Amino acid sequence: MASGDFSLYLRDLETLEDTEMTLAQVNYAEHRMQQQWHDLVIAEQTGQPEEVLEQMFSVYMLLVEEFNACRDKHLHQRQSWCDSRAARRSQAMIRPTSLPSEQAASHFPLSNLYTWIGA
User: Fold this and answer.
1) Do 29 and 67 contact (CB within 8 A), yes or no?
2) Of the four listed, 8, 27, 70, 71, which is most buried by Cβ atoms within 10 Å?
3) Handedness of CA 67, 68, 69, 74 (dihedral sign)
4) pLDDT value of position 83
5) Is 4 in a helix, a strand, or coil?
6) What is the overall mean pLDDT for the chain?
């Protein structure tokens, strides 16, 4: 990532909040972060100038932020999906089966109620 790309990168990171995050995107962000760290280690081992290493480290830190944002967004979306699914499931379990009024009247005749309470 060239130094001029930082502003574009930061703008893209801000728009993550508005997008749906898939697990593949999270894995890709993690891969980019790990690759940048690997490249930084190799650059340090080959004796690259300090300013190059600092720039590479800055890019690495941006990729760490991107990965964390992607992961957090994905986990939040997954939790929201699980919560909504659980809510739908619990509503279905407590919703009584409704009988048509004619069936309800024949199913629970009032005469039985009067007999039971001794009227």
Assistant:
1) yes
2) 70
3) positive
4) 72
5) helix
6) 76
